[in-house]
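Input record, target 12 of the design panel.
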């Protein structure tokens, strides 16, 4: 066993080093790598780099103590959102990642809509999940007037400091695997010297052709692997599947086959064990940036929220029914039937009011109503929309739960997930308080409903 620090050769002193830092939810650690002096040095220098680089990601995933995030309401007032106290009341589905029109990724915090057409639509959709599930009871989600989108750019910068930080991870993992240190001596020294000029890393996988994360995957991955045909030893790393990098460790590699993989869920920190393949043939010559990875990250995160939310609520249903069964109030046959019905209702309800993109094959009439509930219009109808509803602009409104008058300043459009390959926009009304100048963005159809403007679905095509 090695007793010396891999960087400075001091005696090891039991210092516990996280190979992927704890601040981004890394789990892999070792007391047999580095001394406390080096540990402190890297902690001071590199942890802030990870925290800063993934600031928004950490907030979205509720990792660590990225407690407050500064949010911007349509280029005017700034808000602070607290993860724990919820300065802006957040409900599970309230956090959504959208794209603004200039292509920036934005974090939106919105409340659900509350529309009279709830029942009719839910009933229509229920046919997809099983009949009769709606009979008897019907709940609607409480109205919440304050809505997003407050936004912040995900803004991941591939800085020299990040390059160094990725090198640190790879060097430590390499040594942790017990591989020959002399062959990467230069890399070890560069990391030890905190040399930000180290340029060995190739950012890659910008189209996820080298490796595509599986459904709902949000992970950290490190691979040290030899390639027999290419005669190379290389490292491959992914953090949150957004930042992906390749490092050539050894050319003309003649040694034994090497294949070390560390793969963990970046939210739960659980190990992921399925085999990971990386197709080096697909490594791009010119790195195309991380935008695609951010987009698909947002999609996988959204689908995890959906799955977790539904799983959690259906397990509550099951618990309730099991209690009733234990107490002899229902038979096991009734338990099964009721569970199926209530779960079906749950999915139907969630798919309409919370996660409108969950189901792709709504029919046209249903789609119109869903788009209405969520204030979604076709992107190519934007100009028509503005003209049709322009009388709203400049009008003064009063809100039940807010003081004073609000002036409608303009419509705000945020990119929404494509529907059947059609670009969709979510429309918000942007209000300014006459009292204190604060800003509010409220989904357009909430406002139409509140002021009794009829929904001109025949005149104005929402889908
Ligand atoms: Zn040391």
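The sequence produced for target 12 reads:
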């Amino acid at each position: 066993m090695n007793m010396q620090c891999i960087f400075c050769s001091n005696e090891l002193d039991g210092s516990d080093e996280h190979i992927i830092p704890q601040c981004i939810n890394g789990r892999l650690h070792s007391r047999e790598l580095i001394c406390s002096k080096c540990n402190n040095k890297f902690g001071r220098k590199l942890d802030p780099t990870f925290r800063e680089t993934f600031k928004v990601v950490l907030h979205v995933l509720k990792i660590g103590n990225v407690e407050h995030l500064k949010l911007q309401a349509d280029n005017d007032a700034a808000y602070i959102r607290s993860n724990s106290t919820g300065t802006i009341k957040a409900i599970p589905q309230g956090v959504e990642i959208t794209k603004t029109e200039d292509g920036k990724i934005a974090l939106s915090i919105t409340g659900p809509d509350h529309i009279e057409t709830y029942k009719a639509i839910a009933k229509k959709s229920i046919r997809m999940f099983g009949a009769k599930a709606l009979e008897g009871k019907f709940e609607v989600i409480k109205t919440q007037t304050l809505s997003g989108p407050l936004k912040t750019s995900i803004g991941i910068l591939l800085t020299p400091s990040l390059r160094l930080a990725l090198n640190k991870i790879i060097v430590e993992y390499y040594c942790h695997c017990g591989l020959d240190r002399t062959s990467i001596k230069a890399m070890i020294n560069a990391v030890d010297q905190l040399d930000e000029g180290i340029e060995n890393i190739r950012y890659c996988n910008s189209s996820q052709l080298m490796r595509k994360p599986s459904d709902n995957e949000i992970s950290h991955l490190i691979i040290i692997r030899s390639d027999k045909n290419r005669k190379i030893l290389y490292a491959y790393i992914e953090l949150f599947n957004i930042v992906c990098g390749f490092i050539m460790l050894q050319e003309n590699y003649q040694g034994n086959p090497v294949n070390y993989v560390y793969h963990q869920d970046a939210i739960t920190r659980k190990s992921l064990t399925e085999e990971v393949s990386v197709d080096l043939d697909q490594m791009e010559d010119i790195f195309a940036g991380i935008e695609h990875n951010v987009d698909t990250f947002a999609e996988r995160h959204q689908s995890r929220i959906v799955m977790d939310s539904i799983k959690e609520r259906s397990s509550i249903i099951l618990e309730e029914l099991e209690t009733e069964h234990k107490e002899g109030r229902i038979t096991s046959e009734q338990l099964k039937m009721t569970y199926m019905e209530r779960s079906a209702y749950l999915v139907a309800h969630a798919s309409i009011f919370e996660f409108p993109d969950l189901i792709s094959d709504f029919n046209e009439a249903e789609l119109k109503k869903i788009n209405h509930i969520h204030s979604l219009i076709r992107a190519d109808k934007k100009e028509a929309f503005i003209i049709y509803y322009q009388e709203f602009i400049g009008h003064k409104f009063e809100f039940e739960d807010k003081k004073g008058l609000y002036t409608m300043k303009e419509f705000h459009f945020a990119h929404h997930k494509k529907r059947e390959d059609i670009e969709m926009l979510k429309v918000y009304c942007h209000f300014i308080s006459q009292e204190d100048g604060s800003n509010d963005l409220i989904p357009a159809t909430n406002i139409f409903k509140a002021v009794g403007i009829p929904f001109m679905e025949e005149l104005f095509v929402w889908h």
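The CA atoms of residues 216 and 307 lie 9 Å apart.
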